[in-house]
Automatic annotation (TrEMBL):
Belongs to the class-V pyridoxal-phosphate-dependent aminotransferase family. SerC subfamily. GO terms for molecular function: O-phospho-L-serine:2-oxoglutarate aminotransferase activity; pyridoxal phosphate binding. Keywords: Amino-acid biosynthesis, Aminotransferase, Pyridoxal phosphate, Serine biosynthesis, Transferase. Signal peptide: none annotated. It is an enzyme of class 2 (transferase). Involved in the plastidial phosphorylated pathway of serine biosynthesis (PPSB). Catalyzes the reversible conversion of 3-phosphohydroxypyruvate to phosphoserine. The gene is LOC115950715. Pathway: Amino-acid biosynthesis; L-serine biosynthesis; L-serine from 3-phospho-D-glycerate: step 2/3. The lineage of its organism: Eukaryota, Viridiplantae, Streptophyta, Embryophyta, Tracheophyta. GO terms for cellular component: chloroplast stroma. Residues 6-350 form the Aminotransferase class V domain. The keyword Transferase applies. The keyword Amino-acid biosynthesis applies. GO terms for biological process: L-serine biosynthetic process. This is Phosphoserine aminotransferase.
Length: 362
């Protein structure tokens, strides 16, 4: 589609073309129901079929067992920064955080309001370019959970395997690598993710939580943040983000059609490989600050040795229909987000442009 840009935004982000066209074809009159998904009762049989299919497809994709609830919530991952301590611990409980970038730091700060978090490792002094090695980590002996951010969207560091906490449960923010590869859900007490990077539009937040953790929320927990309320009501306690859930459902179907997350991961590895190779093979013209072993397959930050050319790089790329390549305002440089829905052709085009830009400016 010539009128579509290659959108390298970190989120909201590019969605699969097939999914958008399917949504378009169903927008006006969803499957003969005489109305759009936006207009339906969230308690009618049509929408119930949509949310149930979305949940069951997500369960298939991630191989989620019946020991876990899957919740479709609102408020973004940011709301979960508060909901997690409110639901899982009491105000005097100790919880551990590994801080690998801006997002885990935000989660840590919010948890200070509802628990006693401590940062057991921080990558701040190394500008968030690393993930710690797990056997060196000293956890608090009475920690109730260990919180990690599986993929730092701004800094581009991603866990390649997960720590097994000695103390407490493992809790992970997977906002920016959700459904990008297979995950052993059984290792986690709770996984959460905003939808707007890999699986849908903003407005839907997915929580996968072990059922036996539900039902112990602090007294002050707002009803909208109480997992028990949402679990008991199958995510329909109040009006859910119906259209967003429908879109997530279409994305889950598409991921299954592609052969599931094993196949999706292979494509993501290929895309990331050609982009990192272009950076590393540029004789220092481009540079990625992240330690090689933990480079994200989803968010690729890079800088130009001649940093004065960065604005020109971004401008020229946009002229060639590659947009949203500017790095986060907190770190500068460039960032290419290459989520599931970014086609290989988009990354190939970016790499060709990078080589050409270097040839003209080296
Ligand atoms: N965690 C991560 C890893 C993120 O990338 C983001 C959003 N960029 C958030 C949390 C916050 O998500 P939201 O904007 O949905 O609240």
């Amino acid at each position: 589609h010539q009128d579509r840009l290659f959108n390298f935004a970190a989120g909201p982000a590019t969605l699969p073309e097939k999914v958008l066209l399917k949504a378009q074809s169903e927008l006006y009159n969803w499957r003969g129901s005489g109305m759009s998904v936006m207009e339906m009762s969230h308690r009618g049989k049509e929408f119930l079929s949509i949310i149930q299919k979305a949940e069951s497809d997500l369960r298939t994709l991630l191989n989620i067992s019946d020991d876990y609830s899957v919740l479709f919530l609102q408020g973004g991952a940011t709301t979960q920064f508060a909901a997690i301590p409110l639901n899982l611990v009491s105000p005097s409980d100790t919880v551990d955080f590994i801080v690998t970038g801006s997002w885990s730091d935000k989660a840590f700060k919010e948890a200070q309001k509802y628990s006693k978090p401590s940062t057991i490792w921080s990558g701040k002094s190394e500008k968030y370019t690393k993930i710690p090695s797990f056997h060196d980590l000293e956890q608090n002996p009475d920690a109730k959970f260990l919180h990690i951010c599986a993929n730092e969207t701004i800094h581009g560091v991603e866990y390649k395997d997960y720590p097994s906490p000695k103390n407490g449960l493992l809790v992970a923010d997977m906002s920016s690598n959700f459904c990008s590869k297979p995950v052993d859900v059984s290792k986690f007490g709770l996984i959460y993710a905003g939808a707007q990077k890999n699986v849908g539009p903003s407005g839907v937040t997915i929580v996968i939580i072990k059922k036996d953790l539900i039902g112990n929320a602090q007294e002050i927990t707002p009803v909208m943040l109480d997992y028990k309320i949402h679990a008991d009501n199958n995510s329909l306690y109040n009006t859910p983000p119906c259209y967003g859930i429908y879109m997530c459902g279409l994305v889950f179907e598409d991921l299954l059609d592609q052969g599931g997350l094993v196949e999706v991961e292979k494509k993501n590895e290929k895309k990331a490989e050609i982009l990192y190779n272009a950076i590393d093979g540029s004789n220092g013209f481009y540079r990625c600050p992240v330690e090689k072993s933990v480079r994200s397959l989803m968010n690729v930050p890079f800088t130009l040795e001649k940093s004065e050319l960065e604005a020109e790089f971004i401008k020229e790329a946009a002229k060639e229909n590659m947009v949203q390549l500017k790095g986060h305002r907190s770190v500068g440089g460039m960032r290419a987000s290459i989520y599931n829905a970014m086609p290989l052709a988009g990354v190939e085009k970016l790499v060709a442009f990078m080589k050409d830009f270097q040839a003209r400016n080296a």
